[in-house]
Write a structure and sequence with these properties.
Shape of chain A: elongated
Oligomer: heterodimer
Strand order of the largest sheet of chain A: 7-6-5-8-9
GO molecular function, one term (chain B): acyltransferase activity, transferring groups other than amino-acyl groups
Radius of gyration of chain B: 19 Å
Number of strands of chain A: 18
Structural class of chain A: mainly beta
CATH architecture of the domain at 7-120 and 210-226 in chain B: 3-Layer(aba) Sandwich
Number of helices of chain B: 13
Distance between the termini of chain B: 18 Å
Pfam family, one (chain B): Thiolase_C_1
Helix content of chain A: under 10%
Structural class of chain B: alpha/beta
Strand content of chain B: 15-25%
Shape of chain B: globular
CATH class of the domain at 7-120 and 210-226 in chain B: Alpha Beta
Order of helices and strands of chain A: EHEEEEEEEEEHEEEEEEEEH
Strand content of chain A: 35-45%
InterPro entries (chain B): Thiolase, Thiolase-like, Thiolase_C_2
CATH superfamily of the domain at 7-120 and 210-226 in chain B: Thiolase/Chalcone synthase
Domain Thiolase C-terminal (chain B): 243-372
Protein name (chain B): Acetyl-CoA acetyltransferase
Order of helices and strands of chain B: EHEHEHEHHHHEEEHEHHEHHHEE
Chain lengths: 313, 388
């Protein structure tokens, strides 16, 4: 049985966030080495602050300075930090109730090992040297032997408030196209296009998915289709896509390969873009070492009659 | 036991714009929710459950935003559900909320849908590079443009129809203070002269990218009796789905759409939608989808939808106004777009649509679709309760 393909897939994007008034004040405060909470209707102080009262759902915006010192309420040891985590060496994830707050903040505690961490221990903010108005302005917490630090009394409003942040997100996957598509891709390496026929409705799927979406049953019978086909419909793309190394304008077409029961999508070349038409007969153009036909070009045959492909648009 | 009649008694939306940098996601949804409650003259305590929807999480990169939005929507201590059906989600979300009332699970439900496209990247989100696949295209326009060409070939519609739709919808938007695009100097010539992005789709025939939220308060018969303003009554609602691609898929007039409409009409006792429905707010992200959906929804015979558009029947003063609000072509916070269609239908039958009110609108259809034309959701609302 041919090998089922696998490859790493990394999805990453720098998302932006508008903060709104409360988060803006909180993060601007961190930049100024001041931790702000918010007072709820029933008088509790929430750190980190929220915009809406969890009990009454009303807007809350009375910001209150709390101390940069506090008490660990619970923790978990992280023996193998991953990229993007607060510390590169093993550390404890801690929930810290800062002095003056009624709720705990999640952060990292720099400690030599799990034996040095306990619930109830005193800790203090270690500020980052470079601060921009982000939760990472608190580099981490460190063990601290003392009572509450006095608030700075600096107040709650700072000039040049942070109103938005950029949050890079990244997901690492291992992607597999599965058995049927792997077979299809292996056949393409031999410049053959192989679909699969549904044993029930007899439709030939190209590319195959290993199951017929209409009948809901597995497909296995392989059917070689093409190499020639018919352009059933298309558009002319005039926008250059960032991740796509193709000059515009180009034609993006649905092509029903001879013997296939639905169209696949491909680029048309070898003909001026404004001469591409529905019914145009085309064939694949391969480039050395490529997994896919680079594009399809006209065969020179007469156009297919609309009646022959109108169900394959 | 028969279903509980469902009434829309509150509607709220944000003023949709390209970027709401002044509010967080929570602040954005809050604005729409508060307006809906104010319209219904209700408070957070009057709401029994909250049902929200938005497009895929990786558009804004906030995973399961419903968890973090519970405080902002007064949902603490109540059921909070999230619905997820791509672009049709705003419609599906309203229907899930309506079903909770119809089934007498809850008396009053707040339903809301949103998108903050300025903090998102839908083009990127829809075009993730997949190993072993040939990168061919980016964005939704290139996906839908070949289907528009197929419609033009099948129906024999003249090239001019798409621009007529865009010109009509952008002018309707001028009457709607909540619409994103207010192109005061729009002319048909400007639409036609705009750049061809994905031929046959021009720039001015595509939807904008918007930040916005829309909310509705749905309630039972007793709630409707207490409502300060006339309610809109749900006469029929349905959802259907089908695969994105399968042998025999009809992208021009998907079967799921036809079946969904037929279900709604059966529930509402609509024999001939053209005769029995006064106006329709349908999901048209690219102008040509107006004539395509008019056929799919049974307002015109196959191949005849463009004639309705061309004749002016779908204009605000026509006999079947379509997209009175300015439509998706004028406002597109993706996750909210379906609910804005549903809300516009309700505003019309309540007589609350302001400058874009259709005189005598008694029964109005709201429609949404999503994914690769694979999810459909629709409701028909009326000025009178279903049993009257």
């Amino acid at each position: 049985m041919p090998e089922v393909l696998k490859a790493p897939l990394v999805v990453e994007f720098p998302f932006t966030r508008s903060l709104g008034p409360v988060q803006s004040a909180f993060l601007t405060g961190l930049r100024e080495r001041v931790v702000l909470g918010v007072r709820t209707t029933d008088g509790r102080v929430l750190v980190p602050p929220v915009e809406y009262d969890p009990v009454t759902a009303e807007e809350i915006d009375e910001l209150v300075e709390v101390a940069p010192t506090g008490t660990v309420t619970t923790w978990a040891w992280n023996p193998a930090p991953r990229r993007g985590q607060p510390l590169a060496t093993p550390f404890a994830w801690v929930l810290v109730r800062l002095d003056g707050a009624d709720t705990a903040l999640l952060h990292a505690l720099d400690a030599p090992g799990p034996d040095a961490v306990r619930t109830g221990m005193r800790v203090r903010v270690r500020w980052a040297a470079e601060r921009s108005g982000a939760i990472t302005d608190i580099a981490c917490f460190a063990p601290y032997d003392g009572g509450p630090d006095r608030p700075t009394g600096h107040g709650r409003a700072f000039p040049d408030a942070v109103t938005g942040i950029v949050v890079p997100a990244r997901l690492d996957y291992t992607y597999s196209p599965g058995r049927a598509q792997s077979d299809y891709i292996h056949a393409l390496a031999e410049r053959r296009t192989v679909g699969e026929r549904c044993p029930s409705c007899r439709k030939v799927y190209v590319p195959p998915r290993g199951a017929c979406p209409t009948c809901g049953i597995a497909t296995a019978e392989q059917v070689e289709v093409g190499p020639r086909g018919t352009v059933t419909t298309f558009c002319i793309v005039n926008i250059k896509a960032k991740n796509l190394d193709v000059e515009v304008p180009y034609v993006y077409a649905h092509i029903a390969l001879d013997g296939a029961d639905l169209a696949l999508h491909a680029r048309i070349g070898g003909v001026p873009y404004d001469q591409v038409r529905m019914g145009l007969r085309v064939e694949p153009v391969w480039t050395e070492g490529a997994r896919y036909p680079d594009h399809y070009r006209p065969t020179g045959e007469p156009d297919a009659a609309y009646e022959t492909y109108k169900e394959l648009l | 036991m028969s279903k509980e009649p469902v009434a829309v008694v509150g509607i709220g939306q944000t003023r949709h714009v390209a970027a709401r940098r002044d509010v967080s996601l929570a602040g954005l949804v809050r604005e729409a929710a508060r307006r809906a409650l104010a319209d219904a003259e209700l408070t957070w305590a009057d709401v029994d459950a909250v049902v929200i929807g938005k497009a895929p999480d990786f558009f804004e990169g906030v995973m399961m935003p419903e968890l973090y939005l519970a405080d902002a929507l007064g949902a603490v201590g109540k059921p909070l559900l999230r619905v997820h059906t791509a672009g049709s989600v705003g419609g599906s979300t309203a229907l899930v909320a309506a079903n909770l009332v119809a089934a007498r699970v809850h008396g009053t439900v707040l339903t809301l849908a949103f998108e903050k496209q300025s903090e998102s990247n839908a083009m990127w989100g829809l075009s993730l590079p997949i190993p072993f696949q040939q990168p061919l295209l980016a964005g939704a326009g290139g996906f839908f443009a070949p289907h528009v060409r197929a419609y033009m070939r099948r129906s024999g519609a003249p090239d001019s129809i798409g621009a007529l739709v865009a010109y009509k919808d952008r002018r309707n938007a001028l009457k709607n203070p909540y619409a994103h695009l207010h192109e005061h100097d729009i002319t048909l010539e400007k639409v036609v002269a705009s750049p061809m992005l994905w031929d046959p789709i021009r720039y001015s025939e595509t939807c904008p990218s918007s930040d916005g939220a829309c909310a509705m308060v749905l309630t039972d018969r007793a709630g409707a009796a207490r409502a300060p303003r006339p309610p809109a009554w749900l006469l029929g609602g349905a959802m259907r789905s089908e695969p994105t691609l399968f042998a025999g898929k009809d992208f021009v007039s998907p079967r799921a759409g036809r079946d969904c409409a037929a279900d709604v009409y059966r529930q509402a006792g609509v024999g001939d939608p053209r005769r029995d429905i006064d106006a329709a707010e349908i999901y048209v992200p690219f102008s040509w989808y107006e004539p395509m959906w008019l056929e799919n929804l049974g307002f015109a015979a196959e191949g005849e939808g463009w004639k309705l558009t061309e004749s002016g029947a779908t204009a605000l003063d026509g006999d079947l106004p379509v997209n009175m609000s300015g439509g998706v072509l004028s406002t597109n916070p993706i996750g909210a777009s379906g609910m804005i269609r549903f809300a516009e239908a309700a505003l019309q039958v309540r007589g609350q649509a302001g400058e874009h009110q259709v005189d005598g609108a008694r029964r109005v259809l709201g429609h949404a679709y999503g994914g690769g034309s694979q999810f459909f959701s629709m409701w028909l609302v009326g000025a009178q309760p279903p049993d009257s």
